[in-house]
Amino acid sequence: MTFFLLPTFDLSEVGGKWLITWPPMFDLSEVEIRVGLGGIFKTNFYNMADVFSQIYIQTVFAVKHRKALIQPTWEERLYQYITGIVQEKGHKMLAIGGMPDHIHIFIGLKPAEALSDLVREIKKSSNTFIAEEGFSKDKFDWQAGYGAFSYSRSHRDAVCKYVLNQKEHHRRKTFEEEFFKILADFDVEIGKKTIFDFFLPDE
Hints:
- The chain is α+β, with helices and mostly antiparallel strands and 203 residues long.
- It has helices at residues 72-88, 115-133, 156-164, 166-169, 175-185; strands at 3-4, 10-14, 17-21, 30-36, 39-46, 56-62, 92-99, 102-108, 147-151.
- Helix 1 crosses helix 2 (115-133).
- The chain is globular.
């Protein structure tokens, strides 16, 4: 819930009732006013307007140390589980795919939740899911960090195809080559480090 405190408004008593006016640029559907002996001492404004958005995000993250632990025998169940997390939180899963050492998720993101919170929940819950199902003989963890890239509606179908065809794509290109190309395409600066943190082993 968002509170707006407006210092410039007019309050007047008309016919025994309090009348409040505020600048026309504020579209406020509900107002709470408390009046004391000295006038108004607390005014809360609740912005109740609907939110309309169109945010397409591709996220990419890897298995810890880029170990090839995601096996074809349970890969689809992992994707279904992650899809459930995304949809339960009100987002739209557009495409999910990957390789044994990393995953791509393309979603329609609702602005009510930060992407970092969503990715954190996906990693945490899917780690638990994989452990409880006994899918991996080795200890499974996602690597810290992720990549996130936004797209326009006109690119949606192409990105979906790209995510779903990861295995075909990686017959010609490694994960590292793929990710650095995405960074270059989006003009993302890596910084002073010689290699992006995404590919450095976690301690």
